[in-house]
Design a protein that fits this description.
The protein has ten helices and 39 strands. By secondary structure, the chain is of the alpha/beta class. The strands form six sheets. Strands 13, 14, 16, 17, 19, 20, 22, 23, 25, 26, 28, 30, 33 and 36 form a 14-stranded parallel β-sheet that branches. An eleven-stranded parallel β-sheet has the order 12-15-18-21-24-27-29-31-34-37-39, covered by helices on one side. It is elongated and about 110 Å long.
Length: about 475
């Protein structure tokens, strides 16, 4: 690349999911836990700075902006979708400031930065006006064929024409090389000729593929370079293709993790998103889902049926069967589950235990503390070495506002206790089983908040006799 040579990447992302039979924007459908367009943006941003990446959006544009705005990509609005050529026309003012424009498709999630770089470097080295990224699929049916010019009886880099399936003759139909719809352009000849595009076609749209003919007539150099693997430039045009690519990207993710020292039993049953990170010597059992930006440390074991999303797990953690985590944090050597539910804001300190059917929300559970059975802990700050008895509930909501329960170090909460927030249990205090605690408990005190037990001798026998007599009469 010459010093000072500027390059923009424009991503076609304006279409509706018509062939997906969807009311949602096509590029927001997901594989590997990420929107199709997000995959492409992330690949593009490894080739040029993100401020030079543009997404051309149209259908449900605001939804796309909202979903992908965090990437830093710039948006160009194509209010009326009149074809790929028209999309570039809509971005003329932004894109003509650059010397070259690479055009990607927003529905090609497997595109790798290396492939984009290959297209860029070939285009710049050959000083082309237009370079077409091509591929050779097992079955080229339905794709536009690349007809290369021949020099000395051999096919050259120069393109004579792109011939669509319906327009191809028998000889051209034998050509295996197809147009992927991904291009590189020199901006000057592109924008000098783009207004010559015609809508003289079945869909009455401006097609960017027609630039090959226009630039050829203008004596500009139009070249082709192969992508390598067809999958790298493969778009999504059906639900079946969407699922197939999802399986492909997830299988590759599992392979990469195993190559890095993670054990994944029955990886075909596991759902692991593209951005998940897992440390060495961690074991993932069958039917586990690790989603979003989840990070799992080393020497952990995640047992079957657990679903963990956007959560951070330290080293040496055991997550037992059926655990659900969402935006939670679990520190080293903690034990979670089985069948625990850690909701957003839950922070479980090292060596703490959260067990059977325990739900936490916006809770800090201190080092070595335990809540092992049938408990709800919400909006709570819990110290170290605390024991939360089975059936304990923090009543954190008064119908209008949420309130905090504070439990200091070394507290023992008896089973079936109700802690009505705002309330504080002092260091080393005890709460008797079955208590309803509404006032502060001093340090080292015993709190009992329940009705006094009364035994009525013979009451049950008399009751049974009365019921029997009533039944006879």
């Amino acid at each position: 690349m010459k010093k000072g040579e500027s390059i923009a990447i424009a991503i076609m992302a304006a279409g509706k999911g018509t062939r997906l039979k969807s009311k949602h924007p096509k590029v927001l459908h997901e594989i590997g836990g990420k929107a199709l367009l997000r995959h492409v943006i992330e690949a593009a941003a490894q080739v040029v700075p993100i401020e030079d990446v543009y997404a051309i959006i149209g259908y449900e544009a605001e939804l796309v902006r909202k979903a992908l705005g965090d990437t830093g990509v710039k948006f160009i609005l194509q209010e009326e979708q009149r074809g790929t050529g028209h999309a570039i026309m809509c971005g003329r003012e932004e894109l003509k400031k650059y010397e070259h424009v690479l055009v990607l498709s927003g529905d090609t999630p497997l595109i790798r930065p290396e492939v984009i770089e290959r297209l860029r470097d070939f285009h710049l080295q050959k000083k082309a006006a237009m370079t077409i990224l091509t591929a050779v699929p097992p079955d080229p049916f339905g794709f536009g064929r690349i007809v290369r010019k021949k020099k000395g009886g051999k096919a050259s880099d120069e393109v004579q024409a792109i011939v669509e399936q319906k327009a191809a003759n028998k000889q051209q139909l034998k050509i295996g090389e197809i147009n992927t719809g991904i291009y590189a352009f020199a901006s000057k000849p592109l924008f000098e000729n783009i207004d010559k595009l015609s809508t003289d076609n079945a869909h009455r749209e401006y097609y960017l593929t027609d630039m090959a003919v226009l630039l050829g007539k203008a004596k500009q150099k139009v070249l082709a370079v192969k992508a390598g693997e067809m999958a790298e430039a493969l778009g999504v045009n059906s639900r079946a293709e969407l699922v197939r690519l999802d399986a492909q990207i997830r299988a590759a993710k599992c392979t990469a993790l195993m190559d890095a020292g993670v054990t994944i039993y029955k990886p075909e049953t596991c759902t692991i998103d593209a951005d998940v990170e897992i440390g060495t010597d961690t074991v993932i059992e069958p039917f586990v889902q690790l989603l979003g930006k989840t990070k799992v440390g080393s020497d952990c074991r995640i047992r079957s049926g657990s679903v963990i999303e956007n959560s951070a797990i330290g080293d040496g953690v055991l997550v037992r069967q059926g655990t659900i985590m969402d935006s939670a944090s679990v520190h080293n050597e903690a034990i979670i589950g089985p069948y625990s539910h850690l909701r957003p804001g839950s922070e479980i300190s090292e060596k703490a235990h959260v067990g059977n059917f325990v739900e936490t929300k916006k809770v800090k559970l201190g080092k070595g503390s335990k809540a092992n059975h049938l408990t709800y802990l919400g909006d709570s700050v819990i110290g170290a070495g605390v024991n939360i008895g089975a059936g304990t509930i923090t009543c954190n909501y008064d119908g209008v506002n949420k309130h905090t329960t504070t439990i200091e170090d070394g507290v023992f909460v008896g089973s079936d206790s109700t802690l009505v927030a705002p309330v504080k249990l002092g260091k080393g205090s005890y709460v008797g089983a079955g208590s309803c605690i509404t006032d502060e408990v001093p340090a080292d005190a015993l709190a009992i908040g329940r009705g006094r037990q009364i035994n009525k001798e013979g009451w049950a026998k008399a009751k049974r006799e009365a019921m029997a007599a009533a039944k006879k009469s």
